[in-house]
Specification:
With 439 residues, the protein is α/β, with parallel strands linked by helices. The protein is 39% helix and 16% strand. Bound molecules: pyridoxal-5'-phosphate.
Length: 439
């Protein structure tokens, strides 16, 4: 009896939806017609009305191994039973050290020290703070300015996309931004990395001339802007950023919260594009999102700079690293490596891109972008009703059993890396059908 009551609590639509203020959601619209997910397995969600929904978004760019992986469930429940929590301050637990060692081995170059956090947002904040602290302890305390990029999204902490800036923008002074690289005029329907836009990295030289290098701590970019709608880096862009940062002693931070763990057909975007940042932030696919966790990887010279002073002094007043999240991380890494999921994403890339481009001639499609197992279909906004066209497509696809994600008028897709070809077809056939009907 108790068990069935428990089960009912999680499998039906609750009577009162009002108290929960939903994140990043049109609360009133949702509460008038709730879309409630109650279970998941493999590539599919189950809804409260027992429908199967194909997940074309890996949850929120995070369930890269597919849903409800037995290995992760077992590792998490074993860890909860063994050591559900241990303080991370002045104490340790084996899973975090072993996990850090595996991550360091997987990461490119000498990104070989790992700071654990609780989310991608926290990773971004921590990375920026480490950059500030690094300059501080390296006798460069005047380097306090942080440079982001327009349309960047680094979570719910510092800075972010337009809506966040509108509400909270001035809370974080001393920042500047590079221009974004999204251009329909030059790059629409380009397959792969855009030819145009590499020169936009040179804007960093302008910011250096404006503020002086001695005031700039770090540049943070997503190697591929995800939440802004899958904006691929133009050819040469990231290399140029690296060169300018090197010239002026500025730290380069890659936010790989979305691009890490196979999304672009390689372990990390840094590998795919052959550019090594000084600091890399991770989350999402890190644990397959079974338990929230983030990580900040830093290069050896950054870690070493902190390892000074008396042995008993705490070097950085910051951090976390939950044992249960580490157990999920280990199990997710096992799946990625044992099943070759990064390679799988690379193998499926051309099929994925062709399927995405099959929507090219649909009415109101103004751009398609794709790489690895990530893609975007950009729609022409309805005059006076921005976002309405894509949101309508989102609702209709959901009715037809496919979960897509929209950002503005862009449909963003990022299925679990276990997706099959027939499921890729289903994703694009469903979107195509919806667009045709709405035309
Ligand atoms: C690039 C990037 N950084 C950071 C975040 C924030 O991650 P989290 O939701 O784990 O805080 C996101 C979330 O989508 C992201 O896309």
């Amino acid at each position: 009896m108790l068990e069935s009551l428990e089960s009912a609590r999680y499998e039906t639509i609750p009577n009162d939806l009002e108290p929960l203020w939903m994140p990043f959601t049109a609360n009133r619209q949702f509460k008038s017609a709730p879309r409630m997910l109650v279970a998941a397995e493999g590539m599919h969600y189950t809804t409260a009305d027992s429908r199967q929904i194909l997940d074309a978004t890996s949850g929120l760019w995070c369930v890269n191994c597919g849903h409800a992986r037995k290995e992760i469930t077992e590792a998490v429940s074993a860890q909860v039973g063994r050591l559900e929590y241990g303080p991370g301050f002045q104490m340790g637990h084996p899973a975090s050290f072993e996990f850090a060692a595996r991550l360091a081995a997987l990461a490119p170059g000498d990104l070989d020290h790992v700071f654990l956090t609780n989310s991608g947002s926290e990773s971004a904040d921590t990375a920026l703070k480490i950059a500030l602290a690094y300059h501080n302890i390296s006798d460069n305390a005047s380097r306090t300015r942080l440079i982001g990029r327009e349309k960047g999204y680094h979570g719910v902490g510092f800075g972010g996309i337009a809506n966040n800036r509108k509400y909270f923008g001035s809370a974080f002074p001393g920042v500047d931004h590079l221009p974004h690289t999204h251009s329909l005029e030059h790059n629409a329907f380009n397959k792969g990395q855009p030819e145009w836009g590499g020169h936009l990295a040179d804007d960093l030289e302008r910011l250096v001339a404006l503020h002086d290098a001695s005031t700039i701590a770090a540049v943070i970019v997503e190697p591929m802007a995800g939440s802004a709608g899958v904006i691929l880096p133009p050819k040469g862009y990231l290399k140029r950023l690296r060169e300018i940062c090197d010239t002026h002693g500025i730290l380069l931070i890659f936010d790989e919260v979305i691009t890490g763990f196979g999304r672009l057909g390689d372990s990390f975007a840094a590998e795919r594009f052959g550019v090594l940042p000084d600091i890399m932030t991770l989350a999402k696919g890190l644990t397959n999102a079974a338990v929230p966790m983030g990580a900040v990887l830093v290069r050896k010279h950054i870690y070493d700079a902190f390892m000074n002073g008396p042995d008993n002094a705490i070097e950085l007043f910051h951090g976390s690293g939950h044992p249960v999240a580490c157990a999920a991380g280990h199990a997710a890494l096992d799946i990625y490596l044992n099943e070759g999921l990064f390679e799988r994403a690379a193998e499926l890339e051309s099929y994925w891109i062709d399927a995405a481009f099959s929507l090219k001639d649909h009415a109101h499609v103004i751009d398609i972008r794709a790489m690895g197992l990530v893609g975007a279909v950009e729609l022409e906004p309805i005059e006076g009703k921005p976002t309405a066209r894509a949101f309508d497509a989102f609702l209709k696809c959901y009715e037809r059993g496919v979960l897509i994600r929209t950002t503005g008028d862009i449909i963003a897709l990022s299925p679990p890396l276990i997706v099959e070809k027939n499921q890729i077809d289903q994703i694009f056939d469903t979107i195509g059908g919806v667009l045709k009907e709405a035309a």
